[in-house]
From TrEMBL:
Protein name: Aspartokinase
Nucleotide-binding found in the keyword field: yes
Taxonomic lineage from the root: Bacteria, Pseudomonadati, Bacteroidota, Cytophagia, Cytophagales
Database matches in Pfam families: AA_kinase
Matching InterPro entries: AceGlu_kinase-like_sf, ACT-like_dom_sf, Asp/Glu/Uridylate_kinase, Asp_kinase, AsparK_Bifunc_asparK/hSer_DH
Length: 413
């Protein structure tokens, strides 16, 4: 069996779903489809949860109206009516009519996970209508996680057991990316952009022949085409290089996706749903690492420097306190560097999390910060490449390892 993952961009409208069906007809008779919410539905559902949690009835109605119209329209276009999603919207409306009965993060997972439920219901019905017998599977009954809402950690033994019990026989099957369940039937999600990871979970548990993630780009490129004009398609990539690129922020693959596949030697194809016959990128066990530099570009970064208030050095006791604070605030460190008396980190400037973290840190440290920065990571760098990316930028911090350089810069343009 093969696993195909279709992201939100690939099913953002009815034309996208028709295209998906064509790809299945030509490329996938024995396939498990792992599908994301349509277009930007997850963002809209996040807005809905916020309005619900804050009791903003008017906003809630407006956002729900937009989400409902969007899905009804696609369903009507593809299937002639909206019956494929009636039940899910009735369930959502019932949920929203009650006072929130759980923590914000749990309510978030109950509601936001429905984006994937809706998309797979419409697509399953459309494939059926087009004479592609399709079995719809509920990922909440297959992917078992712990109780960490919004970032569920997979219980591999239980997940594998369930997937192997329920995903049997040949033919087309469809399930939701991003979604899982903790014990007590409590819905969880795997973290934003987690559908790639879902595809890897299913492939690992099923010993799949391969995974293909269908994207709006020709494959993995040596830079994000949104930022760089002249990108090169990387036809072959080692698991190690793919992990490193994803880890440093190449958003084309979710970083958790690669390891499970590497452990079983399952190849990962990244291909274009716009050019389904082009080979794209294959990630696997290859000898040769990349020969050209790859770039990862993150904007809106903040450089935070900490100095102890007392006479202490930056040592283990300070570091463990610092890391504890970052973990508690849910702020991921993109780069860190320390000297005897100062510790610097670069993080995404998330307005929901960073100010609270800074306030906490100020209790124990002298804190300075510099925002509006860019973090440029180059894998397989050379000096010429570094010089080129630094044109018109002020370099604030540089960190080099054997294969990777990270540059924290301020744009002077
Ligand atoms: P999905 O619809 O599957 O969630 P994403 O939007 O998450 O798709 O991923 C595809 C996007 O990743 C591309 O449109 C591209 O802008 C971005 N991207 C970032 N880094 C790279 C890279 N190195 N190669 C290709 N695409 C990249
Ligand atoms: N729909 C989820 C999100 O937008 C998961 C995914 O698409 O990968 O974050
Ligand atoms: Mg994505």
């Amino acid at each position: 069996m093969k696993v195909f993952k279709f992201g939100g961009a690939s099913v953002k409208d009815s034309a996208g779903v028709r295209n998906l069906a064509e790809i299945i007809k030509t490329q996938g008779q024995d396939v498990l489809l792992v599908v994301s919410a349509m277009g930007k539905t997850t963002n809209a559902l996040e807005d809905l949860v916020l309005a619900y949690a804050h009791g903003q009835a008017e906003t809630m109605r407006a956002v729900l109206g937009t989400i409902t119209d969007f899905h009804y329209q696609i369903s009507a276009d593809l299937l002639g009516d909206s019956s494929s999603v009636h039940e899910t919207f009735a369930h959502l409306e019932l949920l929203l009519s009650q006072v929130p009965g759980a923590s914000f993060d749990e309510v978030y997972d109950q509601i936001v996970s429905l984006g994937e439920v809706l998309s797979t219901q419409i697509i399953a019905a459309y494939l059926q209508k087009n004479n592609i017998p399709t079995q719809w599977l509920d990922a909440r009954q297959l992917v078992c996680t712990d109780i960490t809402f919004r970032e569920g950690r997979v219980n591999w033994a239980e997940t594998s057991l369930r997937i192997n019990q329920k995903v049997t026989g040949r033919g087309v099957k469809i399930t939701q990316g991003f979604v899982g369940q903790a014990s007590g039937n409590r819905t969880t999600t795997l973290g934003r952009d987690g559908s790639d990871y879902s595809a890897a979970i299913f492939a690992y548990c099923l010993n799949a022949e391969s995974v293909t993630i269908w994207k709006d780009v020709p494959g993995v490129l040596n830079a994000d085409p949104r930022w760089f004009d002249e990108t090169i398609l990387l036809e072959k990539l080692t698991y190690q290089d793919a992990i490193e690129l994803a880890y440093y922020g190449a958003t084309v693959i979710h970083p958790k996706t690669i390891k499970p596949l590497q452990n079983k030697g399952i190849p990962l194809y990244v291909r274009s749903f716009l050019q389904p016959n082009a080979p794209g990128t294959v990630i696997g066990n290859f000898e040769q690492h990349l020969s050209t530099p790859s770039f990862i570009f993150k904007i809106n970064q903040v450089l935070i420097s900490l100095r102890p208030n007392d006479f202490s050095f930056i040592a283990e006791d300070n570091l463990s306190r610092i890391f504890g604070r970052f973990a508690q605030a849910g702020v991921k460190i993109n780069l860190m560097q320390n000297t005897a008396i100062s510790f610097s980190v670069v993080v995404d400037n998330n307005p929901d999390r960073v100010p609270a973290l800074l306030a906490q840190l100020k209790q124990d440290f002298r804190v300075s910060y510099n925002d509006g920065l860019e973090l440029i990571t180059i894998r397989y760098y050379d000096q010429g490449t570094i010089d080129r990316v630094l044109v018109n930028k002020k370099l604030l911090l540089e960190q080099k390892s054997r294969y990777t350089v990270q540059l924290v810069v301020k744009d002077l343009g």
